[in-house]
Amino acid sequence: MANKLTKTTVDGLRPKADRDAFLWCGELRGFGVRVKPSGVKTFLIQYRTDHGQTRRYSLGQYGRLTVDEARKQAKIKLAEVAQGRDPSTARKSARQIKTVAELCDAYLLDARAGRVLYRGRPKSSYTLDIDEGRMRRHIKPRLGRKPLDAVTRTDVERFMHDVMDGVTAVDVKTGPHGRARVTGGPGAAAKAVSLLSAIYTYAMRRRWVEANPCAGIEKPADNKRHRYLTADDYAKLGLALRTARAEGVNGAALDAIEALALTGCRKGEILKLTTAEIDPDGHCLRLKGTKTGPQMRPCGKVVLAFLRRASQGCNAWVFPSSRADQPIVNLRKPFLQVCAIAGLEHVTPHVLRHSYATTAHELGYSELTIAGLLGHSAGSVTARYAHHVDQALSAAADKVSTLIAERLSEGWLRPVSSVG
């Protein structure tokens, strides 16, 4: 058996005229040094992949690395091999990724395959669609062409201020019925930098870069409005929904808006809701795809009755588009119409979710219960149940949705001229 590699043994290794010569360490299996006929000596490891293929991975030239430094690197790489990784293939992949844009594409590819985790679980397709939009609209236009390892803290700060100042703002058509309105601002800048940081953290784990240029960046506050609907606002919204329906606004879109108000669900969860996800016996929605993965969302009786009526005649989607084989993809226009009729300002679909939580708080429910009603991943009571929703949550959902439905129906008592 060969002896442990030392400076003396490496110095004593002589080249062969017609081929490479190798000297393997007798202490650390797979660690060795290769000398070329030219006399250049390079440290390396040799290993087998999970598929039985032999690979060699160069650690660096002798002289630039000492024997002890090379041994430390060899232990790290051999540990990766023991975990099922292939350092040689990873290095080849890294050589193909030279710019920030290429890194974004690699991150997104791995994330969609479930190989990038957020809080211990893969990101949902809904979240990744948002990430892809931020890459395409903010990160790639400003940083995409820069070499992967050349981005500095100054570059990130300049990028952040550009997004804050609206440099990346755009208003473009994305299809026959789609439109992208990117405005920028503090909130968009903070989220774009957070995503860029996550992308560089991913690159560090793959050993494509040595440092994260986003580390320590002070991000701006996003100036979130804590807007919620009062009882009077709900009455205006209810009357506006009925007025819009009478004026011929898309009925499925109006149903979706009302469902958002009654359930506290996220917009994407309602727009993609299928008839198969409604479980009247379980008093819940069995959502297959949410921001934090599959969830059971407790529902009150008034909600289940409303969804039953809304889904009559629907084969798959509860809120179908004009093409019955697809769901509604955008509520922006009908939502703005309803808010205009109601005279409600600064109201978005997410405000309906926040208002649902506020109503639950008015009824005296705890933060833990409200988290369960909204399906929050942190502290969610529903996460502890595999097959049913807790009766206390079901009862809470029933009371909250009933109160919201009553407030919406109060619009019947108001003349149209008083709305807004």
What would the keywords be for this entry?
420 residues, alpha+beta, Double Stranded RNA Binding Domain, hpI Integrase, Chain A, 3 domains, four-stranded antiparallel sheet, three-stranded antiparallel sheet, disordered C terminus
What does this protein look like?
- By secondary structure, the protein is of the alpha+beta class.
- It folds into three domains: about 5-85, Integrase, DNA-binding domain (Double Stranded RNA Binding Domain); about 95-205, no CATH class; about 230-420, Intergrase catalytic core (hpI Integrase, Chain A, Orthogonal Bundle), CATH 1.10.443.
- It contains 15 helices and eleven strands.
- Strands 1-2-3-4 form a four-stranded antiparallel beta sheet. A three-stranded antiparallel beta sheet has the order 9-10-11.
- The longest helix has 20 residues, at about 185-205.
- It is elongated.
- Residues about 380-385 and about 415-420 have low confidence and may be disordered.
N-C termini distance: 89 Å
Q: Going across the major beta sheet, what is the strand order?
A: 1-2-3-4
Please mark out the parts with pLDDT under 50 across 5 or more consecutive residues, or reply none.
378-387, 413-420
**Largest β-sheet summary:** 4 strands, antiparallel
